[in-house]
Amino acid sequence: MDLNEHTKWLVDFYKKRKWYDLSPEIRMNFLIEEVGELARAIRAEEIGRDHPGEAPQSKSQKDDNLHEELADVFDQLLIICSKYGINPASLMDDSENKLHRRWNE
């Protein structure tokens, strides 16, 4: 599945559950929540988590969690793009153009 196919599938999935009706401002709060979960997953990968309420995780479990949290952040970004009519693929060009301009490269 490519980026456009996934975005369409995701928007349809959200619309079925009426999640798509939530405002971009609320979506932003969900994005922040997911970024926090991503930060926790990266911490587990890099320095571990010594938490009495959590069982130790294997490397494979940590990797799976990191992938899951990255996907959750990615999906929130795709929904925000959709809400504003932005083609997410265009963001790659925007990123490169900005860095080329900023660093004269």
Protein model, in words:
Residues 46-65 are annotated as: Disordered. The structure is a single chain. With 105 residues, the chain is an all-alpha fold. It is built from 4 helices and no strands. The longest helix has 25 residues, at 59-83. The two termini are 33 Å apart.
Quick structural overview:
The protein has about 100 residues and is mostly helical. The protein is built from 4 helices and no strands.
Distance between the termini: 33 Å
Helix percent band:
over 70%
Average predicted local confidence, pLDDT: 95
- Number of contiguous helices: 4
Q: What profile does the largest beta sheet have?
A: none
Number of DSSP E strands:
0
What shape does the CA trace take?
globular
Structural class determined from secondary elements:
mainly alpha
> Ranges with pLDDT <50 over ≥5 residues?
none
Percentage of β-strand residues: under 5%
Q: Provide the succession of SSEs.
A: HHHH
Gyration radius, rounded: 17 Å
Keywords:
0% strand; 72% helix; 105 residues; 4 helices; mainly alpha
Secondary structure elements and pairings:
Blueprint: H1 3-16, H2 24-46, H3 59-83, H4 90-103
Helix pairs in contact: 2-3
